[in-house]
Design brief:
By secondary structure, the chain is of the alpha/beta class. The chain is built from 15 helices and 7 strands. The chain is globular.
Length: 377
């Protein structure tokens, strides 16, 4: 497994040429033409999900969205390395991982629209809902992995997070625990170079993977825009976890092409030249060029990929706009595991407020006022 690679592992160059690397290529030897097209399709669909959700937010249909533009290979490649029994703990940006795990497109935006506290049923796909508290999922994943190990489950547990999260105490504590107890967890860091407006050089003076090695955790760096390399490295780490080998750390070096969230303006802290440099390393273009170089590109297959992306985008948009507002009284559901007198009183007070005449419940600044005589309305 990972541990000795200072330079990011790469199997496909940005221009689509293969890299001779027998050590890692064997981990993706099963990816023939059909599966390569499937990987390409999932990345194209993931990007379309992202652009459609971003458009929905700009149109006022979502309160917020955390774009994944540019990180499709890191997410699709790592998700493909997992089995249905493996368990995923995500941050707030792993929409492509969720899609690959089987989350219906119609469920991806519930939380972001503000109609629910969550998006999907975690038990249906073995993946948690988006974690907004940065780095908290690292502790959750480590605890789950350790419990699964005690139960004798031969699974891998994966914690997704960004480069900024590695400066959080939660991730540090998770790695301490995982290393000390041999928890079978894969720490998957998507180093997208920006923690909101802070560049990665301010997060770590050395490669982020080196932080894991300081805890005694084997770590490797991979070209996060190379879907085959990501798949190979994540497969190695997951296999190590399932075999009882303990934790691993994968640093996928990629780039966030869009804003941190739709509330962010990246033009205020990074240059167009930097964006152009990374655009030349686009993960989707890389696989399309590989298909072309190896004589596998088919216009009919490309049209089918595009049609699938259109279909998913339509499902996402239709479902999002059609989501009903929740019952206001659901505000009090799941606050406590057992009845609580204070919450019961608040529920009753709120029910009375909702049932009252709006004129009787108006705030002082909303109270109706008499128009001054002679002043036009």
């Amino acid at each position: 497994m990972p541990g000795k690679h200072e330079y990011p592992v790469q199997l496909v160059q940005p221009d689509g040429r293969r890299v001779f690397d027998p050590e890692h290529a064997g981990w993706v030897a099963d990816i023939g033409p059909d599966r390569l097209w499937s990987l390409y399709r999932d990345m194209v669909v993931a990007r379309r999900i992202d652009t459609e959700a971003t458009a929905l937010q700009r149109q006022g249909q979502l309160g917020l969205w955390a774009p994944l533009l540019g990180q499709e290979a890191a997410q699709v490649g790592s998700a493909w390395a997992l089995t249905p029994d493996d368990y995923v703990f995500c941050s707030y940006r792993e929409h492509a991982v969720a899609y690959c795990r089987g989350v219906p497109p119609t469920e991806l935006t519930r939380m972001w629209r503000g109609v629910s506290h969550s998006c999907w049923d975690p038990t249906a796909v073995n993946m948690t809902n988006p974690a907004i508290v940065v780095g908290s999922q690292g502790l959750h994943a480590t605890g789950y992995a350790y419990a699964a190990q005690l139960d004798g489950a031969e699974i891998a547990t994966v914690a997704y997070f960004g480069d900024g999260a590695t400066s959080q105490g939660d991730i540090a504590e998770a790695m301490v625990f995982a290393a000390s107890w041999g928890a079978p967890v894969v720490f998957f860091c998507q180093n997208n170079h920006w923690a909101i407006s802070e560049p990665v050089r301010l997060q770590s003076a050395t490669p982020i993977a080196h932080r894991a090695r300081g805890y005694g955790i084997p770590a490797a760096r991979v070209d996060g825009n190379d879907v085959l390399a990501v798949l190979a490295m994540t497969r190695q780490a997951a296999a190590r976890a399932r075999a009882g080998g303990g934790p691993s750390f994968v640093e996928a070096i990629t780039y966030r092409m869009g804003p941190h969230t739709t509330a962010d303006d990246p033009t205020r802290y990074r240059t167009a030249a930097e964006n152009e440099q990374w655009a030349r390393r686009d993960p989707i273009d890389r696989i399309r060029l590989l298909l072309e170089r190896e004589g596998l590109f088919d216009p009919v297959a490309q049209r089918q990929v595009d049609e699938r992306a259109d279909e998913v985008a339509h499902q996402l948009r239709t479902a999002t706009i059609g989501m009903p507002d929740p019952d206001p009284m659901r505000l009090f559901d799941h606050v406590y595991a057992t009845p609580h007198p204070l919450l019961t009183a608040q529920r009753q007070e709120y029910a009375e407020y909702l049932a009252a005449d709006p004129a009787d419940t108006a705030l002082p600044h909303e109270a109706p006022t008499r128009r001054a005589e002679g002043v036009p309305s």
